[in-house]
Amino acid sequence: MKQTQTKFALIVLLAIATTAPAADNFSQWMRAASFRPDAETQQKLASAPATAEGKHWQFARIERSRGDLILQSSGLVVTKLPAVQGHVFSSRELLAYLRLHLPEFNEPGQGQFSLVNEADKSTWETAAGIGTILKLTTAGLPETACVLSENSPDRWTLSLIQTEGAAAADALAGNLQFTVSPATPLDGCVIELRAALRAIAAPTREDEQKLADAAQAAWTRLMDKVSQFVEGNNGACVPELLGSTSRMVPWDLVAKAFHQPSVSWIALEGNWASTDSDKRFRIEFRSDGTCDLIEFNRKREELRVNLPIKNAADPKDGFALERPNDSKETLAFFGFSNAVQDGIIEKMPEPSTLTIVRDGEKLTAKWLGLAISTSVGGSVNITQPSKGKPKTFEFIPAQD
After folding, report:
1. Could you tell me the mean pLDDT of each successive run of 10 residues in the chain, 400 residues long?
2. Closest by alpha carbon to 345, among 366, 359, 324?
3. Which residues lie across from 148 on neighbouring strands?
4. The predicted structure's pLDDT at residue 42
5. Is the pTM above the cut of 0.70?
6. Cα angle vertex 113, ends 107, 114, to 5°?
7. Pick the CATH number of 2-257 from 2.40.128.110, 1.10.287.370, 3.30.530.20, 3.30.1380.10
8. Which residues contact 252 (CB under 8 A, 6 or more apart)?
9. Pairing verdict, β 352-359 and 319-323
10. For 89, which DSSP code?
11. Residue of 170, 280, 292, 304 with fewest CB within 10 Å of its CB?
């Protein structure tokens, strides 16, 4: 059985190689399927304003989806570069123009990229534009959000994103990469769009195929608009030399070849334990944007509180967990009498805060806790977390 699967995987790879337009198609496909934004860009998305429904954005991860790997391309051979206002574009300038004016390469009702927040227009129009969120509205696909996650002279990338929580059944994950390369031996260039996608939760393969067909139609229409722009500005192109391709291949058979990311996700997931001698904390992250923060006392009894994961006030501090200190259950856990509990609550204690930053295979954290003391007469004194000194903790993946 294993030999049969291996042979089938080789057949699939050979089929891709014979239909993909570029000679280095294996490395190009691998890059599109493996690409993850750098940590700064990931943090920028995590810190982006929430939607009108109060939900934050997160990357739609191709490795977490359950559909086949969809490999698509649409290319254009430009034999004469266009000129705008008397200036003849270089190949890199043409690629940059396509990125900058992407919302204008639209066909209303059939396929349209637009900014999610018009306030981001000034960022999009900068040379970099990294972190700008767009949406694609096209027939056959749900409204699909993406973010400009990479921008260089020869390539720029849109990574698909979603709001926190369960994804829609017809949502997609993955990347769109736009590249430019010389059209040797022609005196022009090749503009290519490559998409490496997976359906996140489509119920059947037929549903996946419908999504793939709708996506491919959108890319084809986009490249048709680019062709019209080139030819409408004293340029020339031969669309027929490349055209469009689309294939669906089983993820399990080609994942090792095509999915080799070089960047880690900074998002928080899984179960983590603090490495201090008392093993004071444990964090169990959930898929709904919350986590269980567990604190142990000296008897190894646990206080478990479910908390929302918030962005820290300073983006450099990553994420923040705020555990309330005005709960009698919490205060009783730490051994305070009813009278002391009442005294603490009367002083309106701030929540204790744990800020967390993903650092490769570990988490670094700072804890700002509530300090409590009682005088001989029984009065209660507190030092609010915001007035105290932070304690540093390190977390590693829990072994159980």
Report:
1. 41 41 59 89 83 86 91 93 94 95 78 87 86 92 93 96 81 95 82 95 92 94 93 90 88 84 80 95 85 92 91 77 94 91 94 89 93 85 94 92
2. 324
3. 158
4. 87
5. yes
6. 115
7. 3.30.530.20
8. none
9. antiparallel
10. P
11. 304
Q: How far apart are CA 352 and CA 314, in angstroms?
A: 17
63 torsion bin: left (phi>0), alpha (psi -120 to 50), beta (else)? alpha
* Token couple for 208: 């996946």
Residue 313 is predicted with a pLDDT of 78
Beta-carbon contacts of 255 under 8 Å, excluding residues fewer than 6 positions away, are 63, 69
Tell me the CA distances in angstroms from 301 to 65, 235, 296, 335, one per residue in order: 38, 73, 5, 12
Sorted by where each begins, the domain ranges of the chain are 2-257, 271-397
pLDDT at 24: 43
Quickly name the fold that domain 271-397 has. Answer: Lipocalin (2.40.128)
CA of 269: how far to CAs of 45, 81, 166, 175, 265, in Å? 17, 47, 15, 22, 10
Reading the block at residue 194, the tokens are 């490559």
